[in-house]
Structures are given as structure tokens and as C-alpha cells.
Task: inverse folding
């Protein structure tokens, strides 16, 4: 039984998509510095970055392809002084997919067509299949040819002893996210996985990270590395003992934050379900399917605004403009 299919007592399966999205938003410069250092060096970080989630949602819909994995469209500035935006499109692929390279190409040209700026499409392969390493998409008809190549990082390569040692000694906080993903993917035994989860937490305390950073990283690691209830209880007790040793009682704060976040997410999901029900009743199933993904990803204030508009809307488009 692999870590991916390892069932908890509640029947939950590991959620890799959500923590990766949050990790990319919180630690995007660190992500590039660790996995794509040459690109990180070309970015002028002093000018800030912009996450273009809504714009990317629209591009995905127009591309008529299924978006199933964590991905981010990010606007940055180049360091060479050229006054243009560079859009870095990141795909975090969780499982092997035969059409992955073609999808990377489709998103690439769609983004370039919309923004008319240079685009860098980056792929992070988070699956456990050593043979899955797509790096290009090619197509040809007679003398007309497309050859699209994109840089790829295979996280499984970091499971090798030498590369793993690099992660453990790295001062880049994103290394902990990568280590959590790798161990969650490749560890078959739940007790061994518990040991790795504890080791990752201990690394944060050993490095004397601040309270806020520990809370953020703990939430991401806890999200990625899921344990059966009994082992999770053991892990918590060991972690409480560790906190007493370091005199840093952070986990109780994190757990309370998690409860509050869960309440907010629950309310948000309820509002989304109401809106989807109203949309289907008023405009039919096709309209619901066309807008389901956008509604699911919407913020609470957007859901409220759309719910008000649906009362007087004559077409679905007038709701989401």
C-alpha cells in the first residue's frame, strides 16, 4: 500500500493540490530559488510579483482542457531592465499523464496570445514514476513543425541520498515543502511516515524559525503528510513534548487556526453550493458545468456578489462579468 492510497481512519486521501497552491503563493521566490535558481536570478524581486489566478482561470476555460493540479500564473519583472512582464506558468503534476506536455504547450501559447509578453512555462513533477519525464511537445504536418520544450524538475530525484542531504542542509524554507511531498509520495509504511513528519518539524525548531513561519510550514506539512488517526495522535504527543523541550508552544495555536480556517472554508463551500444550485435551476446544467470551476475557486465576497446578480440576471455571463 503506497502513501497515496494509504487510508486514514476517516477515509481521507492526501490532498497535494491545496497545499502546493498555498505554498507557491506564500513562498514563490523561495520556490524558484530552490528548484529553478537560474530563473530566480533573472527576476527583479524589488518590483514585486502578481498572482493572476482569475486571468488563468479564464485561459483554462478557453483552452477547453481540464485543470486538475496545482498551477499558478505569476507576473514578475526581469532584472535586465526590459520594461515587460514575464509570466511564469507553473504546473505541479501529481500523477503521470499522457497529454501533460501537450497541455503545457496549450497553456503556454494561450497565455502568450492573451498577454503578448514572453512566457516561461515550468513543470514540477511530483509523481512517484521514475520514467515519467515529459520535457517537450512536438507536432508536424508536412513542412510545418512545432517543437515546444520546457524546463522540468522531478522531485523524486531529490530522494536520492546526495540530493536529500542538500535539502536537509538547505537554508531555503521551501526545501521542507519539497521533503514533505517526497516522503508523502514514496513512503509505504505509516509509522515510517510519522517519523519523517516529526523529523521535518524538528528541523524547523532546530533552525530557530520564528513563530509565524513555523505555523505556516506546519500547516503545509500537516496538509501533505496525512497519518491514520492513532499515529496522528502519537505524532501530536511527541510534538507537544518537543515543544516543551524548546519552550515553543506553537502547535496548539496552529490547531486553533486550523479549526477557524475550517469553519470559514465550510461556510464558503456552502455558499458556493447554493450559487451552483441556483445557476442550474435558472440556466441549466450546461451553464453550471461551464462555471463550476470558477465558482469553486471564488472568494466569499465574489460568491456574495454573484448570488445577488443571479436574481436579476438574464444570461449567465451577466453574473460573472
Result:
Amino acid at each position: 500500500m503506497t502513501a497515496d492510497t494509504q487510508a486514514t481512519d476517516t477515509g481521507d486521501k492526501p490532498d497535494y493540490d491545496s497545499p502546493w497552491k498555498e505554498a507557491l503563493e506564500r513562498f514563490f521566490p523561495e520556490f524558484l530559488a530552490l528548484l529553478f535558481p537560474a530563473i530566480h536570478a533573472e527576476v527583479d524581486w524589488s518590483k514585486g510579483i502578481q498572482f493572476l489566478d482569475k486571468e488563468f482561470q479564464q485561459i483554462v476555460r478557453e483552452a477547453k482542457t481540464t485543470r486538475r493540479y496545482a498551477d499558478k500564473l505569476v507576473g514578475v519583472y526581469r532584472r535586465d531592465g526590459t520594461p515587460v512582464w514575464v509570466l511564469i506558468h507553473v504546473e505541479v503534476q501529481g500523477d503521470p499523464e499522457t497529454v501533460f506536455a501537450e497541455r503545457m504547450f496549450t497553456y503556454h501559447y494561450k497565455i502568450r496570445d492573451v498577454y503578448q509578453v514572453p512566457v516561461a512555462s515550468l513543470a514540477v513533477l511530483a509523481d512517484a514514476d521514475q520514467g515519467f519525464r515529459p520535457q517537450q511537445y512536438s507536432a508536424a504536418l508536412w513542412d510545418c513543425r512545432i517543437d515546444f520544450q520546457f524546463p522540468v524538475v522531478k522531485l523524486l530525484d531529490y530522494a536520492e541520498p546526495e540530493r536529500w542531504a542538500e535539502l536537509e542542509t538547505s537554508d531555503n524554507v521551501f526545501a521542507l515543502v519539497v521533503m514533505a511531498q517526497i516522503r508523502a509520495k514514496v513512503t509505504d509504511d505509516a509509522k515510517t511516515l510519522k517519523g519523517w513528519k516529526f523529523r521535518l518539524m524538528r528541523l524547523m525548531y532546530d533552525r530557530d524559525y520564528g513563530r509565524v513561519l513555523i505555523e505556516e510550514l506546519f500547516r503545509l506539512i500537516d496538509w501533505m503528510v496525512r497519518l491514520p488517526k492513532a499515529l496522528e495522535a502519537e505524532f501530536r504527543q511527541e510534538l507537544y513534548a518537543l515543544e516543551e523541550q524548546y519552550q515553543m508552544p506553537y502547535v496548539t495555536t496552529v490547531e486553533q487556526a486550523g479549526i477557524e480556517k475550517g469553519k470559514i472554508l465550510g461556510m464558503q463551500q456552502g455558499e458556493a453550493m447554493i450559487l451552483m444550485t441556483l445557476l442550474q435551476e435558472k440556466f441549466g446544467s450546461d451553464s453550471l458545468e461551464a462555471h463550476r470551476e470558477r465558482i469553486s475557486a471564488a472568494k466569499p465576497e465574489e460568491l456574495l456578489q454573484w448570488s445577488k446578480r443571479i436574481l436579476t440576471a438574464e444570461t449567465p455571463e451577466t453574473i460573472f462579468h
